[in-house]
Design brief:
Chain A has 103 residues and is mainly alpha-helical. Chain A has helices at residues 7-27, 31-56, 60-90. Chain A has one domain (7-102): Helix Hairpins (Orthogonal Bundle). The mean pLDDT of chain A is 89. With 462 residues, chain B is mainly alpha-helical. The chains are: A mainly alpha (103), B mainly alpha (462). The A-B interface holds A 7, 11, 14, 18, 21-22, 25, 31, 34, 38, 41-42, 44-45, 48-49, 51-52, 55-56, 58, 60-61, 63-64, 67-68, 71, 74-75, 78-79, 81-83, 85-86, 89-90, 95, 98-102 and B 114-115, 118-119, 122, 126, 129-130, 133, 136-137, 139-140, 142-147, 149-150, 153-154, 156-157, 160-161, 163-165, 167-168, 171-173, 192, 218-219, 222-223.
């Protein structure tokens, strides 16, 4: 129980956020939206970690959140750099164009 | 431990080389540094003072040292293979990226906390995304980098959600604490703990590219520059397996009933899909990508045999060493052939046996080792995996593995047949540097020596 709310509610909320993110990555075709969906997945994890950290009265869960934030920022920086390079070559960020290697 | 510091220092040095203008001597400096890290690594053998470090974040026990040793020696060979990759512009950046990826790989062999697992995975992956896309004007390389990035961060999301759920159930990120929690709980763990273990499993299967999570691997392997593909299928694979082994043999060994059936299905799928698809490929580079999925399945078999203790760890260590050296050998030949003949298809190898007997002989040794034919290291690698698996309830996998290995022999021999029995249509001569010839000779010798005296590695832990 955190402030009168059972821990299961937090687990369900983050699971729903996470699943929205997963569906977004698989269904959307715009690369920027895909990045946003990956961020959504990571933020669902952050929410869950903070909730568990309060539940266990243990600070290490919250420290882990900082690691996730820093790494996610680095990942997005690299991702956007690759994306701008892709845009320069393909003149589009639709990921359907990126399937030449399949055949 | 000191090896990790040396490699990190080398990475920072590589970035400084641009400012202080010692780019010219950076390459020999890096080679010496990696060799030094390799030697220092072995001075810590059996030296219990070095474990654990940093409030129990990293633990350099003998298993970690052995796997870092495999990674460092492969890295040394890889730098010799990749010498002209470092002759284009932005040299220092490429050096720094590869060295930082190595830091991540060594962290993955030695983590003892979920935090260092996550950081190791990311430190290894983020430079690899950039390196895969490093041919800036090549569309295939762009595509490879982008796909690798999306699939890699997707898998990291699963890994993190799994870690969060495990943390929720056990209240700790420390691997030993989680392990003792599992053995004390005696089956009364909350349901979401099992969900967490399965999500970590899925994320790790993504990272080692086992079917059905392998779909990104062939595209990424084919699109990346050839030397970077060699890096991915040797060092990244070894590091991912060291992490996989640590997590599932040591930490989650107590709840093996949850994940072992899933893993068995994944192995069966990987064996069938990779070998059948590889047999239909016309490009040697893509064929090696599919073959790396099949080798991943073999290494997963040793993890599946989780009641065999040290024997499994020995088998994985031997397999990753044999596979890394065999791959370096195959990729060195492929790199030289495809550079001179402007193609990485099987037809580029036509008539190689007559015109370049040494190159062809090295490729034969590589193919025999990857196919698992006796006298080469690959045979004993498979043999040891089979001997650990035969003591478990998954004997049906052995039959499947033997059948699919026979398919494997077919596609590896396609290259050998092209080299010795196909006519050469007056193609370009293959020019090769002396350092590459030396690399080929040394790694062929290691492949054969490992096959003749396997006891040297296989009885390392007991």
């Amino acid at each position: 129980m955190l402030n009168g709310i059972p821990i299961n509610f937090y687990i369900m909320l983050s699971a729903v956020l996470f699943i929205i993110g997963v569906i977004g990555v698989m269904a959307r075709r715009n690369a920027i939206i895909i990045f946003m969906c990956i961020e959504l997945m990571l933020n669902a994890v952050n929410l869950l970690l903070v909730a568990f950290s309060t539940l266990h009265n243990d600070a290490s869960g919250q420290v882990f959140v900082f690691f996730i934030m820093a790494v996610a920022a680095a990942e997005v920086a690299v991702g956007l750099a690759i994306l701008s390079m892709v845009y320069r070559n393909f003149k589009s960020i639709d990921i359907d164009l990126l399937s030449r290697l399949k055949n | 431990m000191k090896g990790l510091f040396i490699i990190s220092g080398l990475g920072i040095l590589a970035m400084l080389a641009e400012i202080f203008k010692f780019k010219k001597i950076l390459y020999p400096l890096v080679l010496v540094g990696i060799l030094a890290a390799y030697l220092v690594n072995f001075t810590e053998w059996n030296n219990n003072i070095t474990i654990p470090m940093f409030s129990n974040m990293i633990r350099f026990d003998n298993v970690a040292l052995a796997f870092s040793g495999v990674i460092l020696i492969t890295a040394f060979f890889w730098f010799i293979l990749a010498n002209d990759y470092f002759e284009q512009d932005h040299v220092t950046d490429h050096f720094a990226l590869v060295l930082f990826a190595l830091v991540g790989a060594i962290m993955l062999t030695s983590f003892s906390n979920m935090t260092t697992l996550f950081l190791g995975v990311e430190i290894l992956s983020i430079p690899m995304y950039v390196l895969a896309a490093s041919k800036k004007r090549d569309l295939a390389s762009n595509e490879a980098g982008f796909k690798y990035l999306i699939m890699g961060s997707f898998a990291s999301g699963f890994l993190l959600f799994g870690i969060a759920l495990i943390y929720g159930a056990t209240g700790s990120f420390d691997l030993m604490a989680i392990r003792s929690f599992i053995s004390q709980a005696q089956g009364s763990l909350p349901v979401f703990f099992y969900a967490g273990v399965l999500m970590v499993l899925v994320a790790m299967l993504f990272k080692v590219s086992a079917a059905p999570f392998h779909f990104w691997a062939p595209d990424v392997y084919e699109g990346s520059p050839t030397v970077i593909t060699a890096l991915m299928s040797t060092i990244v694979k070894t590091a991912a397996f060291a992490a996989f082994m640590h997590l599932f043999l040591v930490v989650f060994g107590g709840v093996s009933e949850v994940w072992s059936n899933v893993l068995a299905v994944v192995i069966a799928l990987s064996l069938i899909v990779s070998n059948i698809t590889a047999a239909t490929q016309q490009s040697v580079k893509r064929m090696l990508a599919y073959s790396s999925i099949s080798h991943a399945a073999f290494m997963l078999m040793a993890i599946l045999a989780n009641n065999r203790g040290w024997a499994s760890i020995n088998a994985i260590l031997y397999y990753s060493l044999a596979y890394s050296i065999g791959s370096i050998l195959a990729f060195t030949v492929l790199y030289n052939v495809s550079k001179s003949r402007k193609s990485s298809g099987i037809e580029a190898f036509n008539g190689l046996g007559k015109r370049h007997p040494f190159l062809a002989a090295c490729m034969v040794i590589a193919m025999l080792s990857l196919a698992g034919i006796p006298v080469t290291a690959g045979f004993f690698a498979k043999y040891f995996v089979f001997t650990v698996l035969i003591g478990t309830s998954f004997k049906w996998l052995l039959i499947l593995a033997v059948i699919t290995s026979a398919v494997g022999v077919y596609y590896y021999f396609k290259v050998i047949i092209a080299m010795y029995f196909k006519q050469d249509d007056s193609q370009e001569d293959v020019r090769m540097e002396t350092s590459h010839a030396l690399l080929l000779a040394v790694s062929s010798l290691i492949t054969i020596a490992l096959g003749l005296v396997p006891n040297f590695v296989i009885e390392i832990f007991s």
